[in-house]
Amino acid sequence: MKIVFIIDQVYLHGGIERVLSIKANYLASMPHNKIYIITTEQKDKKPCYEFNDKIIFKDLGINYQRNKSYFHPVNLRKLPKHIKKTKSVIKKINPDIVVVCSHSTDTYFIPFINKGIPKVKEFHYSKFIELENRKNPRNLQKKYFLKFADYVETKYDKLVILNQDEAAYYASDNTVVIPNPLTFYPEKVSTISNNIVITAGRIASVKGYDMLIDIWEIVSKKYPEWELHIYGDGEPGYVKMLQDKIDAKNLQDHLMLKGVTSDVKGKMLASSIFAMSSHNECFPLVLLEAQACGLPIISFDCPNGPRNIVNTENGVLIPIYNNVEFANQLIELMKNRVKLEEMGKSARQNASNYSVENVMKLWNNMFNELLNL
């Protein structure tokens, strides 16, 4: 089977890039498969994740200006070249399946080129963020763009979404739920003995770290010996705003912005609880990684990811924006090591359901269905 994956690049660290490497490597290891990855702006840079040597990369050299919208005039001028090159490369490869991973301009033209080849679109974000614009469009342009997007989605053979809750946001009936695969499953788990709460992810407003600082102000008064470690990077101005808030609350000895780490697994294994304060999520892979390390989860019950991973046996879901309850639940777990250990064991067991083998079986079933095999 020849499969083409389409993505903008694979040199930046990110969830989509990491998941693509896992899927592509698994498929490339199977006999009779030939895997291609088409990028639009790799810029001769090395992939940030490891890819099987059998995978064939082809970069189109479109090089959109990433600091501008894909629909900005300076980028739209590159669209005809993008379409022509994509069409030519796909024709030459003649794949059995084309899968669009990223959410860039190719999302909107892939279904209309190289007819006869089944097309799949992956969604790695929650369409919850579109609800307000759909109910009250800012302008006619936005209104009709969303209608156009809905139309395009109907032209894909399958839309891969990460949880069943997301299906309600799609106008078409071609969705299939395939969660992200677990990236690691360590032999050893956390001892739940260190007084460390960890969180990790992109440092951005959607992650709610400003609320987590307020929450930790409450917690640290009760348990000053515990620390909160935040791993990740983001826009320097926003990171500085968070650090300023930490300093203003005099929490710098209890709450640390740790920056990026190449060993998130090791950091999780050295912690005892994972906290998530996001405004919205789709399928937060980092929660599965924490569970694989044996960590209980405390998270806001935001739309729509955490509730599909966390239950009462392996963690606690907090009504969104209830900072006091979030702090109280952290405190309850901190004073009950036995409960922490029980939840950690349950979390580890839940994570095993998302093994690469289990998830890729769903992908192969979908491919076989599309090819009538």
TrEMBL record:
PANTHER family on file: GLYCOSYLTRANSFERASE (PTHR12526)
A Pfam family of this chain: Glycos_transf_1
GO molecular function, one term: glycosyltransferase activity
Residue ranges annotated for the Glycosyl transferase family domain, each copy included: 194-349
Domain of life the protein comes from: Bacteria
Organism name: Aquimarina atlantica
InterPro entries per the UniProt record, alphabetical: Glyco_trans_1
Protein name: Glycosyl transferase family 1 domain-containing protein
